Amino acid sequence: MRSSIFLLFFIFSQTTWSQEAPSMVKDSLPAIDQQLEIEKDSISPAIEKINKKVIDSLTIQDKRKKSKPKDSTAKQYIPYIKPMDLVTVEDYKILHFDGSETTVDTTLSLQGEYTFNFLRKDYFEYLPLPNMGEGFNKMGYDFHQDPLTPQMGARVKHFGYFEKEDVNYYEVPSPYTELFFKSTFRQGQNLDATLAINTSPRLNVAVSFKGFRSMGKYVSSLSRSRQFRMSTQYQSYDKRYRLRLHQTTQSLENEVNGGLTNDAVYFFENAPNYVVADNNGQPVLDENGEEQFQFYDGFSNRSTLSTQLAARNELEGKRYFVEQQYQMFPVSKDTTAYKMTLGHRISVEDKKYSYLQNSVKVYFFDAFEANALDSINNSTLENNLYVSYRDNNLGNLKLDLFHYKWKYALGSNDYSKDTILPNQINLSQMAAQVKWSKTLFGINAQAEAYQSLKDEFATTSFKAAAGRELYKEIIATAQYQYRSQPLNFNFHLFQSDFKEYNWYNSSLVNQNTTTKGLSLFHRKWGSVTASWSKIDNYGFFNNTTPLKDLNKKFKVTALQLDKQIDYFKARFDQRLDFGKFSWVNNVQYQKVTQEENAEEILSGPIALNIPEWLIRSTIMLTSSIFNKALFFQSGATFVFFTDYYADQYNPLLAEFVTQNNTKIGEYPRVDFFFNAKIQSSRIYLKLENVSAPIEHLIKVDTPYDYYAAPFTPYRDFSIRFGLIWNFFQ
């Protein structure tokens, strides 16, 4: 019986979707001629003949025979299926969580170059740790981009984690495959593959897998991941009903070393030339009174440098997501545009974070057990009922109702402690959200409000924005945002086998952020954005290790600042084209002022540390060779940020921790890249941090001073290779 059903489904699918594949599909295909563009809502007799062959299971004629006679004025919607000889790359659509859609991009551009990194997007404000997949140190903040609800913690592990908003859906006229490959740091590869297919014009299935392994150059720095995603979208023939579902299974694992020891820091910074010292450790001077150097290249092999730990942390997750929506009240006769949409989403997700350390050392101070094993289990159930309405007079209006259930559970607390802490947080929450947008007198206005309905772990958020075109293509936008939200669960409760990492903070209040922003955009001269944020009750993890034990031990305290923080950020983005050459600049200025004693480190922790200047400049050449059979893009990227008290990475919490003792920065980073495109495949070659060996060639005693975090070096010079290959079958 099952075989028969499957055979019938396969025959029908092939019948409805069998079309001649194009010989080549690439982004250089011409756009669809306007004469060939046919309105989907108005069907000509010729098109009607085509559509009789492409119907879900039954032809239109068959359906009419089985149905009762209808009024001649009744709506007869016939979907239009584009013949394959008219298909372009623009017909291969990527559908996103928020309802927007993009097309498959096979172009050669600077934004495309960013897709070759680990996150596959631009991370201008992020500073990556030494090995791929270890995480990123933030050099800038947008507090309104964080989730509205409290999270489990271990946020560094979530940089590469696929949330429900990150899963894509597809609509493709023929089977589509994307293969992404990139080399890693020693003994590994990075692969991201996606296969999407429409079994019929109404049903799409996509399967994706991302996995990588990278040994890394330092002791105990192995990184690897396994991330599976499957998504499905179904639409009724008139596009009134839509069903989306996806399932994800993810595992992100890292060996962690806690950074270099003090001796290793010296060897890292001075390899391969070291100061000659006497028996008392004092430098030996030559006849000119200058320090003498000796050459030893052994520590240029980073695996010989000693580290603090040999441990492992891992984030695992599994999620099931279903969304249904139904559209009502068509805008006009014979159309797929509707005024009202009613929908429901449900998401069930389980996450587990674990930290394992055998042969416990004193780095995290004393432990209850000889072998430390900490774990966090976080379960989330989210129900979302929404209705949206659009009208020429009212604008676009959307109402969301949310119901959440969380269970944040820690490991066993059976061993003896001075104080027994609770080991879980169980709570539920309800919330409502309203979104509105409309164009009034040439002004694009938007407003959004979110309010929790229960007092416990409640969130209040409001956002308003207005923009319009000013003189000669200058677009100005003003924005106001306010958010009051609870801190993540690990601020409230954490439990560990290490004695100093156990706390229960029942008196924490909401963190409040108010932001005012202004942006100006010009198509030729670029954009300028500026924002000013006032933050009250800022929550952060602070390094409370005694000064005598710095970089020997690591103690962390979850704190909430009782002082106001002012955060100003201004950014300039510009691209200038000179024939085949392009110059792209990103310049960001930031200033943090903390109320009371902001400059006196000893008076209390400075909670928010960021570099004052962050600069990135790219010069590139874009051209073609071999009769335009190969397009290439080659150039160099310069990155620089001023020195600052960067956050220190804590692998036990998987969080970055504020410290005010060690600065990093003030070093240039130069990357050379070469990207090439042949049809729908793109090849990537990059020389990362080439400035480090160049500095040593110019001056041999130049120290290696590039760090991603205190006592955690940035990446050495390396050559990376990558490939993206799109198949349109």
Descriptive overview:
- This protein has 729 residues and is mainly β.
- It folds into 3 domains: 2-91, no CATH class; 94-261 and 307-728, TonB-dependent receptor, beta-barrel domain (Maltoporin, Chain A, Beta Barrel), CATH 2.40.170.20; 262-306, no CATH class.
- It is 8% helix and 46% strand.
- The chain has 7 helices and 37 strands.
- The chain has a 22-stranded antiparallel β-barrel. Strands 2-1-5 form a 3-stranded antiparallel beta sheet, with no helix packed on it. A two-stranded antiparallel sheet has the order 3-4.
- The longest helix has 16 residues, at 2-17.
- It is globular.
- Residues 1-74 and 598-603 have low confidence and may be disordered.
Short description, anyone?
This protein is mainly β and 729 residues long. The protein is built from seven helices and 37 strands.
Shape: globular
Number of strands: 37
Q: Report, as a whole number of angstroms, the end-to-end distance.
A: 32 Å
- Helicity, in percent? under 10%
Low-confidence stretches: 1-74, 598-603
C-alpha-based Rg, rounded: 29 Å
The CATH C-level class name of the largest domain: Mainly Beta
